Amino acid sequence: MAEISNTIKESSLLPLEFQNGVNKNLTNPTLQNFLKELAATDHENDIKKIIEEIVHCYVTSTENKLLHIEVRNTIIELFTKFNGKKHLKKYVQDLVIKQNLVNDIIKSTAEDILDRIKNEKTCDLKECHKFLHFVSVLQTSPKYDFETNCRPLFPLYIFLFDSYGYYASQVKQDIIPEIEELNFLMSTVVKQILPVFVKNISFLEEIKEQYLQSLLMYCYILLFNEKIGFDLRLKVCLVFVYSFNVLEGDTMSISQLLSKNQSLFNLSINEASDEEKPSDYLIIIYSSIISVLSEEKLVSETVDGKSLILVLFEGILETYKSNPGHSSIVIETSKTLCLMAKQFRKIPLNLVKDIFLEGLYYVSSHADYFIDTVRNYSKIFFEELVALAAYHYGNGSTELTDILVGKFEEIPDEGAMRFFAYENIAKYYGCDFLLKEFDQLPLILLECVDNPTIIDQACKSYQMLLEKSFSTDNEEVWIKTWVIPVINLLRSGQRNENFCQKIISAAFKLQPALLRMTFPNDYIGTVEESKVLLHCLLNARKNGIELSLEKDSILYWRGLIDKQKMEMFMIHQDEEIRLLVLASITESLKSTELYLDWEFIFLINYIRYNITAQSPNVRKQIVCYYKKVLTRFDAGYKVIGKNISNLSKSLELNSSEERDQKKYLSLYQELKKSYRRFICNLTRIFIGNLSYDSNYPRRATSLELLLIIQTILNPDEWKSCWNEEDVKNSHNILFDSYESNKGMIVKLLKTLPPNYLGFMNVNFTFKYMQRSFELATDVKPSKTLSAAYLFDICSYSPFFFDIVHSECGEAAKKGNDPTLDMIVVLTRKLINQTADIKIDHVSMANASVYGLILSVRHLLENRDISKHNDTYSGVFGHLVGNCINISSKIMPVVCNPSPEGYLPDYVEDFCENDESPKAQMVLVYAWRTMKEMTLLLAEIVKQTMKLESEISMLSDDLLMEVGQLFVNVFVQSKHRGVFEQASVGFSIICEHYWSSSREKINSLPRQWLNDALELCTGKKHSEDLCPTRRSAGLPFLILSIVTTSIESAPFQTVMSCLLKTAEDSEDGNSEIKMHCLNVLRAIFRHSKLGELVAPYVAAGVILAIKGFRSETWGIRNSSTLLFAALMVRMFGVQRTADDDRVCFKNKLTVRVFFLRYEPLYSFILSTLAEECHNKSSLVLQPILMVLSRLYPSNFEEESCQVKEYLPYINVCLSSPDYRTRDAAAKASVALINNADIKSHFEMCFNKIGDINTVTDNECHGIVLQMCYILKYNIVRDLPLASYLTQSLHIWELAGKKFSHMTVNLYTELITLLLQICSNFDDVPLLKNILLHLSKQGKTSDVPLTWQENFLSTRTVLAYYIINNKFEETETTYSTVTNEIMSYMYGHENSMKRFFLELLIKLNQIHLYHNQSDNAIINSEAEIDNHPLFYTGDVEIRPSITTLVTSFSRTSVENILKHIHPYLKTFLIEELKIQHNICSEDRVLFFLLLDFYPCAIKFLRLSKQETLNALLSYCDCDNEELISAVISCISTFLMEVDYTLLKYDKLLEVLAKSASPAAAVHRRLTVCDFLCKNSALYCNEEPVLKGDELCTVINIVMVLLEDEDLDVRNAMSNYENALKVKIKINNFLNQTISGHRWPVVPEKAKEDLIHLMTVLLPRRKAVCLIFSWACRYFPDPSCEPSEIFERGGLNQYAENTPLIDICSRVLIKMLWTLPEGLSYDDKSIFPEEQTQIVTSILLDSLMKYDSPMMLTKTKMSVICVLKSMYKFLENAEISSNFVNNFKTYLNDTSLSYLTNHLEHGDLFCVKKIIRKLYDPVFRLRR
What we know:
single chain, about 1800 residues, mainly alpha, tRNA processing, tRNA_methyltransferase_THADA
């Protein structure tokens, strides 16, 4: 090989100079313009036109050689430019091929590059890359002529090979900096050479003599150069083998390359030469031979007397076994085995068995490999092996099949191979064979649902087998075998709906009738079943399935499901169910499928109930679905119109089918009316939602969908949907706190005529503009933001130009862009305002400037960038100059070392006592001004650079000045808000400067970066740099430049420089090191740099950990921050706050971690060795923290190297510092494989069994380690008896040699071991344990460390043994009872707390068992059934939960049965006189009392006295106690006669507990009380009457509008009682009574309004409903304190939807005519009915109180109603009544209200009155 290498060196053309991207400026102005236009446009069509012109220029420029070459190079560069844009790249490719330019471009370019290589000895790598990329793209075209184009290319390939061969030989000394780019270039060359061999073109013969010999030699040299990447050497080897085959194929086979005796090359398997070769070269050769040789030769040829395919198979596996950790070898091995496997059928049967066994072993060890590619190839290889066994099975040989089936016992239950086997056996043998060999296979697969690691694979396999079986079995057998088990699993109540949904959906696709069979119409089922049903329904809609069985349009929707069930799904509390039912309506196979009337009604109702969904994700999906609805609506409406037009034309021609056509025409006309009715109703609903008190979800959703509707309706229809009130309400959204809403409403308002907005004259426009300026100069940011959008609206006025003309004189020209005019006006105002700017609180209060700057930026962002740029150029200059002027006045504030307390020297008039408020005002003003100013400058620069090819908007000097201003801000400012916001603008600036065609501007980011790095590294010094505040703006400066750079070189420069400086800097120069560490932290945290920073993570970790040793606090602090950022970068954002519950997504396997960050292995090892004995080490914690995030994989090969850590970890386990021991115990989990756990535990128990040598700390650390190992690993079959025998002495020495902390932890370990070894039954040893525990319980020593915890831990272990390990005796439960009661009456408060929790948990489990038995739906049963547990305000310790859940149901019942009389007595005594339970545990006492209503009954008090006694406990500030007491009251009331009690005090407690100020658990408790005791108010004969009933109804309504979703949902459950006991309307009559069907709060609220009409007298109901519609909310402009007191911040307490509900109910109550009366027969006239309605409404309001209305509002309404009543008394019965009444209502009644009511109340009252009298206006005479 050395001789060949020397030969190549001698024949080389070297030395050859490689250059990287030599700048070649274009000389032709036309071409320059083309490229400028290309850079300036983003529109695809414009780009295509420019490309056409460039190609045309090439075609026509043949005589101009220089231009021809430049255009050619430009065309080649286009392929690289558009590489990420497939459409444009394909367009250029097609255009070049169509013009027949391919051959000419390739030939001329190749010759030019080759000439430079030969003559100038230079090669431009960038030019070669672009050219070869051009060739690669064209090679993908079927029209590419390989033979013609290879002739000019091949000489270039050979010269590049020649150069690369020489350079590659130099790589061993690592002296060639261009080698990475050369590698990439050669990879492309090899890819282009290979098709020459594969396609076998005639050109191959031409190059055989001239080039192939050299090519062969080059490839041979490169093959053995291990510094070259594996993938490149693999391709090179392919070329080598192909070349050898062409050159020597006639005389020698490729297989002889492997021969010991006949090979020309040193490639034999049994290598005789001592020459060093890469470890992976053999797999490369084997893979190449298999790829090149034909199938026949692979089987027929031999090597040294042995079959070639066997030689290759054995060689491949041998190579892999020699390099098990080499990922490239493993990947290539798996790939090559897949290629070989196809030929195994041709091997004689006697040779196949060994191959089959070896193959199965390989698959079993790689089916779960950590690399995806290996897993996928292993799966394919395994499939080929199964196919091989099936092939021989079909030919009568069962040997391989027997081996395959027999190997199942060796496959791990959790291994992927087991599932591959099921799938492949079914595929090649059939499902019958599979079920015969593996009985109960469906049930076996269903058992996997409890294992999260394999559930997805089990589901996939089940689906495959289900589909396979369907094609072979009859339907009945198929359903019984595969479908019924899944349905049973679904109905079992386990959390497995996703698994079942996928299976049942797959079955449904195969047999749609399964839907009705599985879910009959009279069956509701669980939430999980509903989801599965809806998923099937959604699949049916997507696939266009409609069932015809029992099809009835009245009952069934599209023959699939009954409509009633769909309506119930629409209001279900589960968000997924509601989304799925909407998706089912929305999705359709046809984009023009017509909607049904029922679907329109459904969609209207759906949006009413669901528009305020709390989850943003749900709202987003609802909006997306409604957009689909509107898109399909538009398409369908056009189809209807087209069909009507066609039918009308056909009828005009007197067609013979006139009768049918008239019928269809009538049908389509009705459809059109239905469509118009739907869109108008939907539009009015959305417009009505734009009121002032609508919450954000309602406003945002309505706005977004209105923007879509506006594009569907024609202008007249759109305008007709709006009225004056709607526009006013919508205009208020401009003052919304959400900017997105402001933007949408501006777009909507601009779709209306200007006069709708009030722009009727110049005067109004001028006042509007003045108001906008007032807001823009306000100090409140919310007002300044609104001003920006108001200016936008103002410029829409037709009179705006007149105002501008009067302001600007002749400068304003008619026809100018209003946006430009507004920007000019604002700029003038800003310049005037800035002239006398002062940074003090007085000036700020009078007029701030940041609002004006914001308004200018907003208008600039929305301008048409293609117009009026000459004028904008001047405006930009003024704005930039003004901003620079402002910055000079603001910078002293934000750059002060303590900006939070800085006041300028000239500020004199401040408070004598307190300057801080004014200092804060100054700072806020300064940083907000700076923020808006930097964003404005960024927008100006952005537009300037976009237009630089057309016009110079700003000079280079100004652009440089803008950039320097930002740099100064970053270097000098100390306020975080300033440099954070400045970084947003600076990133925009850098992004455009990097891509600028101006050389001077393009170089600025690189210059700034160099300056910043010099500041970081100390080469430059600046007094302005801030060593604190995490280096202030310096990291933001560097990040803004680096993240916007097109190339990666700046980033690499920064990282190298920072890491080197930080590593070299000593503590003496701590400031430099701190800056470097802070910048590195920012870089590692930045999301855009995720991939780029990966190679530097290990170095960063090493640097950070070393920083912990620094004596300087600042360096330690910066190192800590850097380390935290790196932990997130390595392991992801931690999903839990608890370090003990870190998600597996935040961990890595040991192998993967050290493969990614290889340098950390040796660093961690050496650092552990140094620091493990250092008791005060600061370095141990971060190292152990890293190791604790690792875990061993069950499927990776064992790595013995990591065990080197264990000796040092063991030292840490003995540390006197608890945190170090804990961290070491966590870290050791990753270092001990599952297979070694048993031996490790033996070693641990041996250590702690040696009393003489083990210390307390060491014992604690070892026990802690074992606890963590058991927590994170599945361990079985431990020799527990041996462990116990060795360690029982720890209990004996408690408090003596071992602390109670250690003993407590040891007790927890034994409990855990007993739970794991559930079959352990050594009774004598267990009795010995109890003996030791009983001795510990009797000790009366002075309390030591953790002794209190030990008592409870001891009890848990004792009870576990007694109840789970011993047989029950007469004394078992009496013993437990005696101990519990002795502690309850004792003085040990901690144990009382323990036993209270234990008794509560026992009762919870008992109740759960009973609910599960009695519930129709098992999943309804809940264990933690009290709100205090639900919210987490009260928690039962996990040890008790684990203990009680381990008890059998019988044990739980027996314990409760034996203790009941004693506990009942204790509860009664304690309830009378509190002397045993301390105040801290009183909550637990009442939670326990809730399970024992019998104790409350036997207080020997009357029922009322008992109630009052319980209520007395609510007179306190302990909200948890009040919640517990309310639950007890609820339980008590359910056991007594409601009518015997008075409820005034109870209602007071409930009202206070339901208020928004109460805790969530307290409000939930009230919900629970009201639902359980619904008979008080929700019954045909409610217990509560009059005002008390109204109070409860008010409480229910408040809770239904609570801010917390859980509270609203909990209160909605009162519907369960409502549906059973009261029939409100037809919808409720149809529901299936007795089933729990939780509805959304919006539906529950609507039903509550209906319920009032049933429960209350008519007039009282009218008063209460009207009062709710007109309830008072404070105006947002009022004092914040008033809003807070009234709960006005609750966004779910809205009047808008309530007014709609109340008006519908009141109209039904008031306007429904008595039986026998009709307007048609004039038995009653509209005038009379209107008077009756007015009379009832007036009488109701005067007779009853209206607590929710303001007194002033109510009196005004009464006055109006009286006036209306008088008008109606005097009105004559005539045909003009409706018009006269409408005029009176608008001009008199509503005008009076307008003059006397505030805006909020006025809106509600006017809207409800209009709606109430709307039936009058709908009447027709």
